[in-house]
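Worked Example 4.2. Consider the chain below.
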Amino acid sequence: MFNEFSDPGEYFDINLLILESSNHRNAADIAGTWQYFLDETHKKVGNDPNAAQQPYEAVVNVLREMSHRLKNSEATFSPSMLVPMIETYALEHQNGVGPPNWVVDLFIQVNFPFETILGLLQEMYQNDVAPFVGRNKHVLADHMIYTCEQWYQDCIRSNKRLFGSEENAMEIQQILHHLSESSPQAQNHRASNLMTKIQRSYQ
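Applying the procedure from the previous section yields the following C-alpha cells:
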C-alpha cells in the first residue's frame, strides 16, 4: 500500500487523519504509520542532494503541524508512543546532527507536559530501553536534565508554583541527585546547579 504514494507525507497525512477521524484505536497501526513516516522521510531528505533541510528538521516541521491537525489526540499523537520513537530515531539516525536538545525542544513545542516528558524519559532510562544502554544512557540523562531545566525556567517566567508542587520539586531533586552521580562531568555540573536553585527556592 505504501508504494502507491510517491511522497511519504501523502500517505502519512491521509492515513493518520483517517485513523483519527474514524476513532481507530489500534496502537500498532498508529505506531506503524508514524514509524513509516520517520523512515521514509529520513530516506527521502537524506538522499536528496538539493534538500534545504536536515532530515530531523523535516520531522520537526511535520510533528508541529500534526500536533495542531490532530489536536494532540491521545490516540494518534500520544506522548507515550512518540517520545520513545523520536528519541530512538534521533539517536540511531541523527546522532550529533542539529542542536543537542532538539528532541526535547520539539516535545515542549507540541505541548507535551513537562511532567509527562520527564516521566517517559525516566522510564526509558531506568528500564534500559534499547538503544539507550551503555554509553547511550547519557543521552537520556542529558535530556532528563534539560527537561528539568526548561520546566524550572517555565515556572520562573510564568510565576507558577515550582514544578507544580513541593512534592514534585522533591522528586525532581532526587532524580537530579541520581543523575549527578552517574553522569559525565558536564551533566553532573548542570544537575547540581539546578538542585541548588531548587533548594534556594524553598529557603
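Confidence is low (pLDDT under 50) at residues 1-6. The CA atoms of residues 35 and 81 lie 10 Å apart. Compare this with Example 4.1 before moving on.
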